[in-house]
UniProtKB/TrEMBL annotation:
Its EC number is 2.1.1.319. One of its GO terms (biological process) is methylation. CDD domains: AdoMet_MTases. It catalyses: L-arginyl-[protein] + 2 S-adenosyl-L-methionine = N(omega),N(omega)-dimethyl-L-arginyl-[protein] + 2 S-adenosyl-L-homocysteine + 2 H(+). GO terms for cellular component: cytoplasm; nucleus. InterPro entries: Arg_MeTrfase (IPR025799), PRMT_dom (IPR055135), SAM-dependent_MTases_sf (IPR029063). Gene3D superfamilies: Hnrnp arginine n-methyltransferase1 (2.70.160.11), Vaccinia Virus protein VP39 (3.40.50.150). The keyword Transcription applies. Residues 177-363 form the Protein arginine N-methyltransferase domain. This is type I protein arginine methyltransferase. It is found in: Cytoplasm; Nucleus.
Amino acid sequence: MEIDNIKNSENKEKSEDTNKDVGYFQYYSHLQHQQNMLQDFVRTSTYRNAITELKEYSIENKTVMDVGSGSGILSYFAVKNGASKVYAIEASTMASKMQIILDAAKGPLKKNEYLADKIQIIKGKIEDITEDIPKVDTIISEPIGVLLVHERMLESYIYAREKYLKPEGTMAPSLGTICLAPITDGGLWAETMNKARFWQQNDYYGVDLSPLSNEAYHEYFTSPVVGCFNPLSIMTDDYSISRYDVDFYKVKLADMQDIRIPLNWEIKYTGIIHAVGGWFDCEFGLPDHRNHEIKPVVDQYGKVQTYNSIPVKLSTSPRSPATHWQQVRFLLPEPLAVNSGQVVSGEFRMVTNNNRSYDITMTISLYQPVNHGVTNQRSGDIDSSSLISTKTCKWFLHEQVYNYSFSGEYSNTRPENLNLYLPEKHMAEDQSEYCE
């Protein structure tokens, strides 16, 4: 009987996983959602520039695989840059819509004629395809979600590398970096709390809603808030922002199941931490990019010249132009008051769930440096005797809500406008940052 229960539970989980996949692929089968991504200038132009930059080593006269090809735009970029053959893998019905583009290339009007006989569309998940595909020189993909990992498409990208990429082949993108920082955002926190308080009413059209108040509070404060935020709300200097690299040439599938990001923030301003702000960066580098730091070029006179080959980069930082990924804020149920010079240390842990996403647990501790305000934070040396408080927070990355209140304008903002304050001895130095 117990075995039957276990089997039934496993079958239910598989069914739920399948249903999540169906919903996921249905979403991306709509042209309007593909348009949203295509019209993201930063995303589309960066991929075009990266594929063009990789042309000589990785695209021209090479076989390419496009994992999760969607609209097919990356496949088209690859063909434009001389790819001899592109295998476009797409599980949604966008595969048939992409085929319309390819058929038109050979039609009487020969629209996009350069695509003719260059791309083979294979409908299905990369993990399920049965076609006999040879190993390829390069894998391109846009497998990225909120905070890099949401939707878990990266696992398909890694699977494709392990099964289909030639030794020394190219992955584009090659590196993803998750960035986390403490931020102040009293407006968002108060707005969220006000929404939760709705459920504290004991006479709403004659109904007492208060039995649901705890559930509402939990729901609102475990839901990540997607949307751009003011970069000046970050309460650390840049060097103290937590960064976690995912090297797509080396990372294993198992590594993506349980991601642990160390946190070690040296607090710059006295103020209130209301949330953790998150974003990601990507690079498009060659395999073992160190071997290509100096790239030889023959100039017009036949003389060999060299220059540094720097990977194309994509950033979703709050200081960079906005993308459709935006940023994400993880609100603390109880804000944390901090003083300049204190240190917040801990771990941001992400564990996969059955919703094509991650359950997140963060444990942080607040420390007061014991050596009169001078910390060894950069070396990670924090004396436990200086511990002030510890707290644990939870969020569900798939339970996202959206907030578009930030206008993007912050040039006239000063720290005090955000209720952030420096010690008096640093005030004059800080003011120079805001003076022309």
